[in-house]
């Protein structure tokens, strides 16, 4: 596909993202006009509507934007590194590892502040990533896509069981993080976002610089090495990017499933197999998708609202089944 069309797609995607961002701020239990949203952000007058926009909806929408972009790009990077179309921070256990670290810290140390979750989530994500890569390398044939998927499924089952055990043992821990555990953007403030933003920014920028290398690596490790690529460095930097993106996202919103799986496959219909375009398109599409999903979560049961983490499986599970069936047919 000509680069001009891909560039045009990026521009249109940015415009659509802006529209979805404004819609996310405007829609909710109290609908607010786009003009009022703009006035609240540029020249607030202290009214109730402006207070809602500046302290509640704007941080929440900003969190959805960054988390959506980070999770989708993390999924794309993992699929490129492992050459596994089913790779995703949730399926390969990285989200589960981050969640276990936060739950364990809440259980033992009694932390109840979202701002303190970031460090524990990043450590948990890093340990889970190392464990999955290590277990996946032990199987017959080394680190094949199938071995990684099986290792991720086994680790996810184990870690999820441990997390459930902590929650069963401590009602206090359950009460403090139950909404965070299912994936929620409610109640997120600017202090939390600004605390985690450096990790997400580094992860996003690092991921974008690996586009050319991931495209070469997707042809096969032997071919990439034959072309002079230092594949160990690419895998290491890619893993760092995934840990920063997945860990930072879990710190803000809890585990958001399926987003990192479905978005990279959706954008490939437009970009093809070139990761120089897959990565930025995934970030854009992931941000748009999570913003829209959060709007649906707020409006579907008004005046009540669902955690956005409950909406994602409804959209992602059918696509996951489709991917598995297509792989079996091949």
Notes on the protein architecture:
46% of the residues are buried. The model has no long low-confidence stretch (mean pLDDT 82). The chain is built from 14 helices and no strands. The protein is mostly helical and 330 residues long. The chain starts with a helix and ends with a helix. It has helices at residues 3-26, 34-42, 48-82, 94-109, 117-138, 145-169, 171-181, 190-209, 211-217, 221-226, 231-253, 259-271, 275-299, 308-329.
Summarize the structure.
The protein is built from 14 helices and no strands. With 330 residues, it is mostly helical.
- The end-to-end span amounts to 26 Å
Number of domains: 1
**Biggest β-sheet strands, sense, barrel:** none
DSSP E strands, number: 0
| Category from helices, strands and their pairing | mainly alpha
* C-alpha Rg (nearest Å): 20 Å
User: Remind me, CATH topology?
Assistant: ABC transporter involved in vitamin B12 uptake, BtuC
- Sequence stretches where pLDDT stays below 50 over 5 or more residues: none
Topology pattern, helix = H, strand = E? HHHHHHHHHHHHHH
Instruction: Work out the helicity level.
Output: over 70%
The proportion of strand residues reads: under 5%
The overall pLDDT average reads 82
Assigned CATH superfamily: ABC transporter involved in vitamin B12 uptake, BtuC
CATH class: Mainly Alpha
Number of helices: 14
């Amino acid at each position: 596909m000509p680069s001009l069309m891909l560039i045009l797609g990026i521009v249109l995607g940015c415009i659509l993202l802006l529209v979805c961002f404004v819609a996310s701020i405007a829609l909710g239990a109290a609908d607010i006009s786009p003009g009022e949203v703009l006035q609240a952000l540029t020249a607030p007058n202290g009214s109730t509507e402006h207070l809602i926009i500046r302290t509640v909806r704007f941080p929440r929408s900003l969190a959805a934007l960054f988390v959506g972009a980070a999770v989708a790009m993390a999924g794309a990077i993992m699929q490129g590194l492992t050459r596994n179309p089913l790779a995703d921070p949730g399926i390969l256990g990285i989200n589960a590892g981050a969640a276990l670290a936060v739950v364990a810290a809440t259980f033992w140390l009694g932390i109840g502040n979202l701002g303190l979750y970031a460090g524990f989530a990043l450590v948990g994500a890093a340990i889970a990533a190392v464990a999955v890569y290590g277990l996946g390398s032990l199987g017959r044939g080394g680190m094949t896509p199938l071995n990684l998927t099986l290792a991720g499924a086994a680790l996810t089952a184990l870690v999820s069981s441990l997390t459930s055990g902590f929650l069963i043992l401590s009602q206090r821990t359950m009460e403090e993080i139950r909404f965070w555990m299912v994936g929620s953007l409610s109640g997120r403030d600017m202090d939390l976002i600004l605390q985690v933003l450096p990790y997400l920014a580094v992860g996003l920028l690092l991921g974008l610089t690996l586009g050319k290398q991931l495209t070469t690596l997707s042809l096969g490790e032997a071919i990439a090495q034959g072309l002079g690529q230092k594949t160990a460095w690419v895998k290491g930097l890619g893993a760092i990017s995934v840990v920063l993106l997945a860990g930072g996202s879990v710190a803000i919103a809890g585990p958001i499933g399926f987003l990192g799986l479905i978005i990279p496959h959706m954008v490939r219909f437009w970009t093809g197999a070139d990761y120089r375009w897959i990565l930025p398109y995934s970030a854009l599409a992931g941000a748009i998708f999570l913003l829209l999903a959060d709007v649906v979560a707020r409006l579907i049961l008004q005046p009540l609202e669902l955690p956005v983490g409950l909406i994602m499986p409804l959209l992602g599970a059918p696509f996951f089944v489709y991917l598995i069936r297509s792989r079996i047919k091949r």
